[in-house]
Each structure stands twice: as structure tokens, then as C-alpha cells.
Design brief:
The protein has 3 helices and 2 strands. The chain is mainly α. It has one domain (6-62). Strands 1-2 form a two-stranded parallel sheet.
């Protein structure tokens, strides 16, 4: 597997959108590789419009 971790990828994407004056014209949704509430807050603070999750919710539901 090759790829960027979520937070660095988000930073690069925000910089790209800002350099092209596209901020606010394209919604930036982030998901994957986020585990703690701090991870979700960091994404929002760094410029994500929304954060989605699926796997972590499924794990929580299966352990109740």
C-alpha cells in the first residue's frame, strides 16, 4: 500500500485549493485513518468541511 496519511493529505489539499482560489467552491470531506476525537477536531481545524467515519462506528457497535 502506498499513500499519504490523512492529516498530511488534508493539509496538501487545503493548500492546493487555496492556491487555486477554490476554497468554498468545493466541499472537502475527510475520512479514514482517524481514531481519536482529537483526530476529528484536527481535520476540522485544518480546513475540512466535514469528517465522516464508518469503520470505527461499526467497531463500537460490535463491542456493546
Amino acid at each position: 500500500d502506498v499513500g499519504l496519511p490523512t492529516l498530511p493529505a488534508l493539509c496538501r489539499t487545503v493548500q492546493y485549493l487555496e492556491s487555486r482560489n477554490l476554497t468554498g467552491q468545493i466541499s472537502l470531506l475527510v475520512g479514514g485513518g482517524l481514531f481519536t476525537p482529537g483526530d476529528f477536531l484536527k481535520c476540522l481545524a485544518l480546513g475540512a468541511d466535514a469528517v465522516y467515519f464508518g469503520t470505527i462506528a461499526a467497531l463500537v457497535m460490535s463491542h456493546t
